[in-house]
Amino acid sequence: MRLIYMDHAATTPLDPVVREGMLPWLGSDSGFGNPASATHGYGRAASAAVDHARQQVASLLQAPAEGVVFTGSATEAINLAILGRLRFVMQRNRGRHIITCATEHSAVLGACEQAQREGAELTVLPVDGAGRLSLSALRSALRDDTALVSLMLVNNETGVVHDIPAVAAALRDHPARLHVDVTQAIGKLPVDVSALGADLLSLSAHKFHGPKGIGALWRCPRPRLRLQPLQFGGGQEWGERPGTQAVHQIVGLGLACEQAARHLGSEGPRLQALRDRLEQGLWEAGIPLQRNGGVPRAPHISNLSFPGVHGEALLAEVSSTLAIAAGSACTSRSARGSHVLRAMGVGDAGLLSAFRFSFGRDSNADDIDEAVAVLSRGVRRLLSFSPLGDEVETHD
Ligand SMILES: Cc1ncc(COP(=O)(O)O)c(C=O)c1O
Questions:
Q1: Which of 71, 207, 331, 334 maximizes ligand 1 atoms within 8 Å of its Cβ, making it the mutation to test the pocket?
Q2: Which single residue of 183, 219, 264, 267 could bond 74 by disulfide (Cβ 3.0 to 4.6 Å)?
């Protein structure tokens, strides 16, 4: 039986156009040069390919290309943004305070906690039941020594979108810099550096049909936003991420950005229609459910709890047909359940039965209809055994 992939927020299949474009840079004929080898054509060709990819990333972000620093993942880009900036400012006594939010990805929370161990002070803002941040709480948290505010554009578990332009406006007369994790937004929402008002952005190719193992940090190049590198060695990537550049991966990221820009206008509405079809379909099938996360929401993620049903039991029912994430793939190892849903005040029953459905370019309406049928069957069967079954109201 076909396994329907609905876990695109975890990773996406590689776009064949991207794969084709990467292949020459994996060959032994000419595409293997080191971009730092400026003395011969092999190196110069590789360097030109890296420059071209840098331009492709920048044009998706509508930003100058000198701001793009290639990294190995969004996690690395985030660590470079947070630790790189905090170490730089703390060494110069120009601030030590970071503001972030309880529903951020573990890469952001982990990097902030590391900065805290190194002497930074951290404020973690709460969210409301819909996953939204309060701007007045952000304004009250700002201090004279706040050096960095780090927030995501799209939440990876719920799809909830933070109002980043409003955050940037709140910081306008403050020296704090704004880092935005746009990992889940690329290819689904427009990500324009000036419209967001961001100083730093992090992203990862594998979330939008590019290869794994390559990400980028964009940091304001004019005037250059200074970072303390996390590694030391060669001068690649302005010395901020030294090490021989992975040309095939970088080419893949560039092409994935080009494809994301090309498909953006049609993919956003198409993914939203698929997401709504799933939620509407389950509703019409009379399945009791609770949607986790309010609006605005990105189009490709739906986080649903099925009250009265144990998530693991439902997963056992559906996992031969549906590839879905219980809570978040990134946090499913946590015994306490999703930190994002907990921060939103979702209770134990909601946490235990929460699933994330996430869609991508290869998702289609047939997949959704099949998912609705399989989930409805599974939930009904489990409710019929459950002592709570009679108490959970179904609707027709
Ligand atoms: C919002 C967000 N930020 C960061 C990351 C980390 O990305 P990577 O896998 O490239 O390290 C993820 C991946 O799950 C994510 O969803």
A1: 207
A2: 183
